[in-house]
Amino acid sequence: MEIHQALTRSKTICNLLPRHEQGRVFAAEGYTHSSGLPGVCIATSSPGANNLVSGLADALMDHNVPLITITSQVPRRMIRNDAFQATPIVEVTRSVTKHNYLILDVDDIPRVVKEAFFIANSGRAGSH
Known about the structure:
CATH class: Alpha Beta
CATH superfamily: Thiamin diphosphate (ThDP)-binding fold, Pyr/PP domains
Order of helices and strands: HHEHHEHH
Helix content: 40-55%
Number of helices: 6
Family: Belongs to the TPP enzyme family.
Number of strands: 2
CATH topology: Rossmann fold
Strand order of the largest sheet: 1-2
GO molecular function: acetolactate synthase activity; flavin adenine dinucleotide binding; thiamine pyrophosphate binding
Oligomer: single chain
Pfam families: TPP_enzyme_N (PF02776)
Protein name: Acetolactate synthase
Number of domains: 1
CATH architecture: 3-Layer(aba) Sandwich
InterPro entries: THDP-binding (IPR029061), Thiamin_PyroP_enz_TPP-bd_dom (IPR012001), TPP_enz (IPR045229)
């Protein structure tokens, strides 16, 4: 919620709130088609992230669209422990994305975001 609230207050980022994650990823893909810039979308962990999969596959396999997707994750101690809403989204999306990151250290976020945009804009376009 904190990131969503910060984005709604941004004067430079346009934050749209579709009612479903699948709509969110396809809206980001549409943004890319209309602007030429990478689309970005955010979803919660597990069910929310899983709802992005069709859009990620479409972006990579059907349209070669540069797309950045950010999902939340359960607490580190719960990763790979069959915790509630702890789908291994990196593994789930590996075959339908160009690249994946599992960030375990908050200090890595600026570097990973920069790399994600570089990768999205390099070579064959596609989601990650």
